[in-house]
Amino acid sequence: MVNGYSGSMITILLVFGTRPEAIKLFPVVRALAATPGFRVRTCVTAQHRGLLDQVLDLADLVPDIDLDLMEPGQSLDRLTARLLAGLGEAIDVERPDLVVVHGDTATAMAGALAAYYRRVPVAHVEAGLRSGDILHPWPEEVNRRIVAAIAAHHFAPTETAAAALLAETIDPATVHVTGNTVIDALRWTEARIAADPSLAAGLDEIAARFARKRLLLVTTHRRENFGGGMEAIARAIGRIADRPDVAVLFPVHPNPAVGTVMEAVLGDRANVARVAPLDYPHFVRALGLCTLVLTDSGGVQEEAPAFGKPVLVMRETTERPEGVAAGTARLVGTDEGRIVAEVTRLLDDDTAYAAMARAHNPFGDGQAATRIAALLRHAYVRDDPVVVELIDPAARAAPPSIVVARDCAPQLVRL
Ligand code: UDP
């Protein structure tokens, strides 16, 4: 008996391997583990070893299976082959009733495929994001589409993502708008920092060093930007950092394709703090402290609007158009002159800055994981007398989607 539940247990295996997957899935692990009727197992592939472990430590999450598949410089096909074989074996050992994957990584794609080969249903968290271009983001756009072709449950973070799935003729009964679990992770982490400021205290020194400057938070790691794009980004950061009123905080992704270029172009500039990747509490604190964000990251595009921080996205397309539509994000590509001009405009034009710097949460309300757990309980735990109201009606114009319970007096759960 777990969580007071005495019926037969449903085993759910969550599979993940990278930092963003861990950040966005740990709230789901917690919500499922607190749900009567579920036995929760986790398998990590460690596609990003060090960055993944930072998040596991924070969330106090000890994986049941650790495939430890990271090899420096391995090709996408070798990685994918090893993921598929390793995850297939993990599923054979765990014999889950459901496999949960997240987003667009090789781990998510291989996990979904391995489950499909065994006819185990798949739930896809952060489903339905589409750029419409299979080369941007590469190869993530295709990873996501493969998972969508397989999944039995599609948890779309936004109405836009749900609409993209419906346009691909995915069965509407399997598509649910839940919000993005990254906002759950963010809120949970903010509460942890509030209770224990020492969790993010490492940023105090940087904050003191740049106290009278405006802080630009930079991250970049996208494969499409390796090479010429990365060099242009580095030169743009160098030019921006020449301004005496600006300092740059730049947690450098461990991929050598990033660090080598940044080292060569930026050297030891006084106004640029190139640091190792920040653990999540420090990164959350940095988002709170900065004036604006320059990034090609997916997750950071979703988090910065929650802090009311303008985000300049160093990509040509985005599968997260909600920030752009809300006016808090802007696509600036990787042209050196364009990046410098857009940053300069925000730094020098208060009206332009104020127009973008509005706290806004197009990506979620911090309750996504609770909704996902309630939906899965409704789908798998047969005696579940629950009706889930997916989205707070006050938060959207259209009437809320309602999942009606089977054969029992419904109880309305407002999430
Ligand atoms: N992040 C972090 N430390 C850093 C940089 C980013 O914890 O130094 C977090 C960030 O808050 C976001 C996630 O990592 O939640 C984004 O990961 P990444 O940019 O690697 O991947 P993407 O979101 O583009 O898939």
TrEMBL record:
Highest taxon above the source species: Bacteria
Keyword Methyltransferase among record annotations? no
Reaction catalysis annotation: UDP-N-acetyl-alpha-D-glucosamine = UDP-N-acetyl-alpha-D-mannosamine
Gene3D superfamilies given in the database record: Glycogen Phosphorylase B
Instruction: Spell out the InterPro entries in the cross-references.
Output: UDP_GlcNAc_Epimerase_2_dom, WecB-like
What's a Pfam family this protein contains? Epimerase_2
What EC number(s) would the UniProt record show? 5.1.3.14
Q: Which UniProt keywords apply?
A: Isomerase
Q: Which GO terms describe its molecular function?
A: UDP-N-acetylglucosamine 2-epimerase activity
Instruction: Cite the UDP-N-acetylglucosamine 2-epimerase domain residue spans from the record.
Output: 31-376
| Similarity annotation | Belongs to the UDP-N-acetylglucosamine 2-epimerase family.
Task: Return the NCBIfam families for the record.
Answer: wecB
Protein name as it appears in the record: UDP-N-acetylglucosamine 2-epimerase (non-hydrolyzing)
The organism's lineage is: Bacteria, Pseudomonadati, Pseudomonadota, Alphaproteobacteria, Sphingomonadales
